[in-house]
């Protein structure tokens, strides 16, 4: 059993934290596994519970561990991370995070456009929209319920099989359309019973609601998207440049 070095200049809580991180990285502690209690760790490493508590608190704050009321402290699955300064497709997001992307089409229809569709997608009064509803998976786990709305003049995509493929790749290779600029809004929501069923989570579970307007290479609206993402699977970061100090 590896012990802590009481003669080291490295604080004991930091040594314990590094040991736990190493156990997680090497697979000795697995995702969703409960770690030993504060008392057990204190006795194992012959340190105070306050020292253990500080190490665990930092790991919880960093999202490595998660406390569950009345159950203990568990190893958290690492969230997929996306940089909002250069967002990319779900397929690329998964692959950058070491996961296998997938998806299943739930609905694929041509329907009447709503007022919002006409305004956002710059449609004519009689033009319809194509609605694509898909559940997206990462390593076969459902993580996103995605609804996309395309202008009706792209109705040829209705013949495509969208299961386990990149829709953007199809648009590029078959229709010569590339995604360009976009406007994205992210907020927090609670999973409805229907969303929870598809995402295999409990109703009311916190989720991310992402709404986006994507433009093509000609700066024309390509589609709008409304997606519900599992809050325990995603993390978005946004770098800030040239920030002036507050006066």
Give structural notes:
The protein is an alpha+beta fold. It is built from 7 helices and 10 strands. The chain has helices at 12-25, 38-45, 49-61, 90-96, 115-120, 167-175, 193-199; strands at 65-68, 72-75, 80-83, 101-111, 129-138, 141-151, 179-190, 206-216, 221-230, 234-237. Strands 4-5-6-9-8-7 form a 6-stranded antiparallel beta sheet. Strands 1-2 form a two-stranded antiparallel sheet. A hairpin with a 3-residue loop joins strand 1 and strand 2 (72-75). Helix 1 crosses helix 3 (49-61) and helix 2 crosses helix 3 (49-61). The model has no long low-confidence stretch (mean pLDDT 90).
Layout of helices and strands:
Blueprint: H1 12-25, H2 38-45, H3 49-61, E1 65-68, E2 72-75, E3 80-83, H4 90-96, E4 101-111, H5 115-120, E5 129-138, E6 141-151, H6 167-175, E7 179-190, H7 193-199, E8 206-216, E9 221-230, E10 234-237
Parallel strand pairs: 3-10
Antiparallel strand pairs: 1-2, 4-5, 5-6, 6-9, 7-8, 8-9
**Which stretches are low in confidence, meaning pLDDT under 50 for 5 or more residues running?**
none
Net shape: elongated
* Main sheet characteristics: 6 strands, antiparallel
The radius of gyration computed from the alpha-carbon positions, rounded to a whole number of angstroms, is: 23 Å
Mean pLDDT score: 90
- Spatial arrangement of strands, main beta sheet: 4-5-6-9-8-7
Please trace the helix and strand order, writing H or E for each element. Answer: HHHEEEHEHEEHEHEEE
Percent of residues in β-strands: 25-35%
Q: Which structural class do you get from the secondary structure elements?
A: alpha+beta
DSSP strand count: 10
Number of helices: 7
Helical content band: 25-40%
First-last Cα distance: 53 Å
């Amino acid at each position: 059993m590896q012990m802590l070095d009481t003669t080291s200049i490295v604080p004991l809580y930091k040594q314990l934290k590094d040991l736990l991180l190493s156990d997680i990285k090497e697979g000795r502690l697995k995702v969703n596994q409960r770690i030993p209690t504060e008392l057990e760790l204190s006795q194992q490493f012959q340190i105070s519970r306050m020292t253990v508590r500080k190490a665990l608190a930092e790991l919880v704050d960093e999202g490595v561990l998660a406390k569950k009321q009345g159950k203990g402290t568990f190893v958290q699955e690492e969230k997929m991370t996306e940089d909002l300064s250069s967002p990319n497709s779900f397929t690329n997001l998964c692959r950058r995070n070491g996961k296998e992307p997938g998806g299943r089409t739930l609905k694929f229809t041509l329907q009447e456009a709503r007022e919002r569709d006409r305004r956002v997608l710059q449609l004519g009064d009689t033009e319809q929209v194509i609605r694509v509803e898909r559940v997206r998976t990462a390593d076969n786990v459902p993580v996103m319920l995605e609804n996309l709305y395309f202008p009706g003049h792209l109705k040829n995509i209705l013949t495509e099989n969208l299961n386990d493929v990149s829709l953007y790749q199809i648009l590029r290779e078959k229709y010569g359309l590339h995604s360009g600029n976009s406007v994205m809004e992210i907020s927090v929501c609670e999973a409805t019973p229907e969303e929870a069923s598809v995402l295999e989570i409990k109703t009311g579970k916190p989720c991310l609601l992402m709404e986006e307007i994507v433009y093509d290479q000609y700066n024309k609206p390509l589609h709008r998207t409304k997606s519900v993402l599992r809050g325990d699977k995603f993390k978005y970061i946004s770098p800030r440049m040239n920030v002036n100090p507050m006066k």
